[in-house]
Design brief:
There is one protein chain. The protein is an alpha/beta fold and about 350 residues long. It has one domain: Alpha-Beta Barrel (TIM Barrel). Helix content is about 45%, strand content about 15%. The chain has 14 helices and 12 strands. The strands form 3 sheets. An 8-stranded parallel barrel has the order 4-5-6-7-8-9-10-11, surrounded by 7 helices. The chain has a two-stranded antiparallel sheet with strand order 1-12. Strand 5, helix 3 and strand 6 form a beta-alpha-beta unit.
């Protein structure tokens, strides 16, 4: 087994069963929409659909990229794809770095045969995109017939890995080239540490139009790496485990920067999703709840988890008086003090 494949399997096992979540808050629980006791709506009228990258989602959920490159990862990706196809959700695959090293593992990322209609997002790290160049990156996207590409930024995770990357120079220039030359839309995605306002401005000026904020409050990848390695990894993983900008704050920063934003990082419920959508998210991404549902109950668990989220969101929309997703940002709300402290304009913003 290759080093990449071994690491992927370790990640899946740790995330499925280990203590990997950040102990900081996403701050989405501080977004309180006012209850509408007299909604004058029928449940049948609630429209939770959204168009994204030319695909129509029945609900604004994306099962965000987790894995690929091994047989077990391929089985997981197909189970996720089946649920996304049945319920009309989006789906991302994990990092396709393994395909650069070994094209024969591409089948673990291919899901179009079971999910012909889903919004499918390819995935590659910024450092690997820098090294591969636009043509090879576009080839990865085409191989799995994806609709868009997520380029992920994971400096904190890489620093914890003994075998991780240490040189992040040139990544912004790579993103600029991809934004202008890639034949599909580009999403720049953090991996649990969020985005600061100045970083978002640099991305916007480079031509990026969509980000996945993936803020602090969910799976901590420094924490994951700290569970699998050497004494040095354990120490640095513990130090960086709670590092980052909360998902709720990073989402507000992205919208202020004029960028469309997918909100991920600690989304665990329809209530979290409602708060993110009310703050202006285009869609909401989840990974860990689906991985754990798969680990516990297989493909049926994934389907049930996704179905519960969709039903919960529609119920909350009705109870907020929102007929469609575009109504949510206009619903009266109360913001908690900690979220307001993060997003009120000041020197840091």
């Amino acid at each position: 087994m290759s080093e990449i494949a071994r690491r992927k399997n370790e990640h899946l096992e740790l995330c499925a069963r280990g203590d990997v979540e950040s102990r900081v808050s996403t701050l989405l629980e501080e977004v309180h929409l006012l209850h509408e006791a007299l909604p004058e709506l029928s449940a049948a009228e609630i429209d939770s659909s959204r168009e994204l990258f030319g695909r129509r989602l029945a609900a604004p959920f994306v099962i965000t990229g987790m894995t690929g490159g091994t047989e077990e990862a391929g089985r997981l990706n197909r189970a996720l794809a089946l649920a996304a196809q049945k319920l009309g959700l989006g789906l991302g695959v994990g990092s396709q770095r393994a395909m650069l090293a070994d094209p024969s593992c591409a089948d673990s990322f291919r899901v179009r045969d079971v999910a012909p209609d889903v919004l499918l997002l390819a995935n590659l790290g910024a450092v690997q995109a820098r090294e591969a160049g636009v043509e090879r990156v576009a080839g990865l996207v085409a191989t799995i017939r994806a609709d868009a590409l997520c380029v992920h930024l994971n400096a904190a995770q890489e620093l914890v890995q003994d075998e991780g990357d240490r040189d992040f120079r040139g990544c912004l220039a790579t993103l600029r080239r991809l934004a202008h030359e890639l034949p599909v839309p580009l999403i720049v995605k953090e991996t649990g540490c969020g985005f600061a306002p100045a970083t978002l401005a640099r991305l916007r000026d480079a031509g990026v139009r969509v980000v996945d904020v993936s803020g602090a409050g969910g799976t901590s990848w420094p924490g994951v790496e700290g569970l699998r390695g050497s004494r040095r990894q354990r120490a640095l993983g513990a130090e960086l485990r709670e590092w980052g900008i909360p998902t709720g704050a990073a989402l507000v920063y992205a919208r202020r920067a004029g960028l469309a934003a997918i909100a991920s990082g600690g989304i665990r419920s329809a209530r979290d999703a409602l708060g993110a959508l009310a703050l202006g998210a285009t869609a909401v991404g989840l990974a860990l709840p689906f991985l754990r549902a798969y680990a516990e109950r297989g493909a049926q668990g994934v389907l049930e988890t996704a179905g519960d989220l969709c039903e919960g969101l529609r119920a909350l929309m009705l109870l907020s008086g929102a007929r469609c997703l575009d109504d949510l940002p206009d619903i009266p709300r109360v913001l908690g003090s900690e979220l307001r402290a993060w997003i009120e304009p000041g020197p840091a913003c």
